[in-house]
Each structure stands twice: as C-alpha cells, then as structure tokens.
Amino acid sequence: AVNDPFIDTNYAAYMLKYDTTQ
Question: What InterPro entries has UniProt attached to this entry (predicted)?
Fold first, then answer.
C-alpha cells in the first residue's frame, strides 16, 4: 500500500517511538 493512511499512521508512530529511543 503506497498511500495508505493506516500504514502511514503506524509508520509515523513507529518512527517516532524509534526516534525517541535513540
């Protein structure tokens, strides 16, 4: 899914959480 709002939200949350860990 390229422009999937659900995937985009999960990816954004994942990146945010991952970035917070660093």
Answer: NAD(P)-bd_dom_sf
